[in-house]
Design brief:
By secondary structure, the protein is α+β, with helices and mostly antiparallel strands. It has one domain: 4'-phosphopantetheinyl transferase domain (Ribosomal Protein L22, Chain A). The protein contains four helices and five strands; from the N terminus they run βααααββββ. The strands form two sheets. Strands 1-5-4 form a three-stranded antiparallel sheet. Helix 1 packs across helix 4. The longest helix has 22 residues. The chain is globular and about 45 Å long. It catalyses: apo-[ACP] + CoA = holo-[ACP] + adenosine 3',5'-bisphosphate + H(+). Keywords: Cytoplasm, Fatty acid biosynthesis, Fatty acid metabolism, Lipid biosynthesis, Lipid metabolism, Magnesium, Metal-binding, Transferase. Transfers the 4'-phosphopantetheine moiety from coenzyme A to a Ser of acyl-carrier-protein. Belongs to the P-Pant transferase superfamily. AcpS family. Its cofactor is Mg(2+).
Length: 121
C-alpha cells in the first residue's frame, strides 16, 4: 500500500552555485557512501549527481510528510546508484519499501519518491 508520495524539481545551476560558494555543502547533503560515488564524477555529471541527491532527499521528506528538517535530515537518507545507474535508497527512517526515480534536463532535475508499506492500513 502506498503511504507516501513526494516530488521535487530543482535547478542544477542553483545547486552548483551553492556547492561552489559553500565548500561544506557537499558534506551536509551527501552521506559518506554518496560522496564516494560523487567523487567519481566531473563537470555536468557531478552537478547532476549532487542536485539529484538534494532533490531525492527533498522528495523523501515530502513523502514522509515532514519535509527536510528536524525529523528527517539529509544524512538520515542515503541513495546510491546501483550497477545500472538507478537510484536505490539504502538507508532511511522509513521501514517499508522506498521507490526512487530521478530524471534530468540540461537545467533541471525532477525526482519522485514513493513509500510503500507492507501492511494495509
Amino acid at each position: 500500500m502506498i503511504v507516501g508520495l513526494g516530488v521535487d524539481l530543482t535547478s542544477l545551476g542553483r545547486v552548483d552555485r551553492l556547492a561552489q560558494r559553500h565548500p561544506q555543502f557537499v558534506d551536509r547533503i551527501l552521506t559518506p557512501g554518496e560522496q564516494e560515488q560523487y567523487r567519481q564524477f566531473r563537470g555536468q555529471r557531478a552537478v547532476e549527481y549532487l542536485a539529484g541527491r538534494w532533490s531525492l532527499k527533498e522528495s523523501f521528506g515530502k513523502a514522509m510528510g515532514t519535509g527536510i528538517g528536524k525529523t528527517v535530515g539529509f544524512q538520515d537518507v542515503e541513495i546510491v546508484d546501483n550497477q545500472s545507474g538507478a537510484p536505490v535508497v539504502t538507508r532511511s527512517p522509513f521501514t517499508g519499501r522506498v521507490h526512487a526515480s530521478v530524471s534530468h534536463t540540461a537545467t533541471l532535475v525532477m525526482t519522485e519518491i514513493i513509500l510503500e508499506s507492507e501492511h494495509e492500513k
